[in-house]
Amino acid sequence: MVKETGLHCACSTRQNLAGICARTAGTIRRCIPLAFTPWIALVFFLIDAHAETGGVTREKSVAITFDDLPHANAGDDGADQPSAQSIQDANARILAALGDHKAPAIGFVVESKARAVGPVAKDILKDWTGPRLTLGNHTFSHADTNTLDIAGIKREIVDGEKTTRRTLKAAGKDLRFLRFPYNHTVDTPEKQKAIAALAAKLGYTIAASTIDTSNDVFDRAYERALAENDTEAAHRIRTAYLMHTQQQIAYYADLNEQVLGYEPPAIMLLHVNRLNADAIKGILSLFEESGPGFITLEKAQADAAYRRPLSYTTKYGPMWGYRWAKDRSVRIDGSLEREPPEWIVSYGE
Ligand SMILES: [Zn+2]
């Protein structure tokens, strides 16, 4: 089992730097034979983009997803365990904001965290089955699939769905989505093939994500400020987080459009923690100000970009824009992605 005290599920900045996010130098371009003239290449690019969009003009949209329910910091080792009241409060404020903004959302549950939280977890998860809401499976113990064989991954999936499936069934809803911890979607073609077959057999769709805000990095700093009753620092961290989120929304929209030739429905990756409980209203407002309408994850992943199976495999957890770039041999300049400010990183260490 991988300890939760470090990175959570996102494609972390450090993982990006080490891996697939492939911060290659140079401008974005399609890889085409040198014999092709630029004009012919442009025609091919437009045909490709038109094929993926189906020639349809799309409205901008985003699906909101939360990982590590009932709470990202529940069940971790260490003395900073959130209280049951704090966990209830964080979920209640997130759900209230989603309701106010009429934003559909899905919460991915870690079964071991639900058990660590105790009986109150059932009430919290039930609240996530209300209007426009649903739950997904985020495995039993938040284990890293890179460290497991297929049998181990199957156990994590099957054991991870117990409370979630029961809660959804009571609400008359189906369990459909699975998201692997750290967005590690297995690291070899052989495992990828086996996992695709296993997920299909168990009735799951693998959840994608396209916007990463490094919210675990900001949350570590935020938790320190709150622990020290430093309200001024907490305010500065929240402000920096919203600014970084705004930059990341724009960055990934641009990345996806350059890779695919159009902007597919975005999928926002967040975690249930105190930072997001305090910042969610601001995050939802950022989307409303920049245009995208809120849709369900199911509707987002009905887009052609998500329906086309990925052939690229990696041991890291990059956002889908980077994966689409690899699959389509589109060279990108990942160095353009902003990192969280250094003072945030060092303050949270
Ligand atoms: Zn996670």
UniProtKB/TrEMBL annotation:
GO biological process: carbohydrate metabolic process
Record's keyword terms, sorted: Hydrolase, Metal-binding
An example Gene Ontology molecular-function term: hydrolase activity, acting on carbon-nitrogen (but not peptide) bonds
Function of the protein: Is involved in generating a small heat-stable compound (Nod), an acylated oligomer of N-acetylglucosamine, that stimulates mitosis in various plant protoplasts.
Name assigned to this protein: Chitooligosaccharide deacetylase
Superkingdom field: Bacteria
Family, as annotated: Belongs to the polysaccharide deacetylase family.
Keyword rRNA-binding: no
Domain called NodB homology: residue spans: 56-205
Pfam annotation, one family: Polysacc_deac_1
Entry-linked InterPro entries: Glyco_hydro/deAcase_b/a-brl, NODB_dom, Polysacc_deacetylase_ArnD
GO CC terms, sorted: membrane
Claim: rRNA-binding is one of the keywords in the record: no
